Amino acid sequence: MLPNEQLQGLSLLKLSFHDKYVQQISANIYAFVQGSHVTNSGFVIFSWGVVVIDSLMTVTLANRLKEAIKSVTDKPVKYVVNTHFHGDHVFGNQCFLPTSIVGHKNTASILERHGQLYVTKFTKRFPKLERELAKVRVVPPFLTFDSRLRLGTPDEGVDLLYFGHGHTSGDVVVFSAEEKVMFVGDLVFNAIFPTSDDAVISSWVKVLERLEELNPRILIPGHGNPCGKKELGYMLQLLREVLLSNELIRGGQIGINEALENILGTGGIESPYGSWLYPERLACLLGQAQKMG
Ligand SMILES: [Zn+2]
After folding, report:
1. Distance, CA 186 to ligand 1 centroid (Å)?
2. 165 alpha carbon to ligand 1 midpoint, in Å?
3. Residue 106 Cα to ligand 1 middle (Å)
4. Alpha-carbon gap, residue 118 to 120, rounded angstroms
5. CATH of the domain at 17
6. How far, in Å, is the centroid of ligand 1 from the Cα of 122?
7. CA triplet 105, 184, 88: central angle to 5 degrees?
8. What does each of the 293 residues of the chain score in pLDDT, given as a tens digit?
9. Ligand 1 centroid to 268 CA: how many Å?
10. Residue 92's Cα: distance from chain center in Å?
11. Is residue 32 situated within a structural domain?
């Protein structure tokens, strides 16, 4: 067992022997962590097959994920769950067909309407990946649900949970109640300021409160290392501070720069976010709170 310094208190294995991206979270749960804040995915192995959580952004990455799964089990992939519609989580879907692609009905409808447009947007954002992204054929989830779906049997499976609009309108949490492990997609970023272009911050707070109630032991975030309840708390606190700052800005009590300084801890107030990556996203979070609540 190789200890991972960044995961104090969590008995995780880093299976560099099999695959450098795979971290074993529990007996049958694995995180696929690319590192450097790049998108995570993961998989859960049951006697009846494998559930994959998020297919990543390119065909190459999806195939790397498939290889990683093969390095751990010879069981077939039965379901690929999309945590939300963002391309870095779903553009690899085509590589898993004819496996069922599962997601919230809002995620399916967004990808059905605008999927190829998002490929174009990503190509503009990541010009170096133009050739890779040209291979993407968007496959929206075709096994969809509204509030809750069990994959597997009553004894052996995971629950897909939907608590409302958070990071996007279709955020799905994959929860193993037995292991108290949850894949949370981009509802939680670990030590990274989240993107929020499609978010409703006030509702996102309520979603995270529901996740806290489930008392998870380990979370696999969409970006950043697997973490615990403490990091879920940081994310919740950040979004609450964004909402509060928004109220103060609206009331004319503080300006936007003061709000940014307060949250980032650069104005003399101590902050847990001082070392978080992409602090420039904080202004977008405040803007999104002003626009959408
Ligand atoms: Zn996202």
Report:
1. 5
2. 13
3. 14
4. 5
5. 3.60.15.10
6. 12
7. 70
8. 333 444 443 444 444 445 679 999 999 999 999 888 899 999 999 999 999 999 999 999 999 999 999 999 999 999 999 999 999 999 999 999 999 999 999 999 999 999 999 999 999 999 999 999 999 999 999 999 999 999 999 999 999 999 999 999 999 999 999 999 999 999 999 999 999 999 999 999 999 999 999 999 999 999 999 999 999 999 999 999 999 999 999 999 999 999 998 888 876 667 888 889 999 999 999 999 999 87
9. 31
10. 15
11. yes
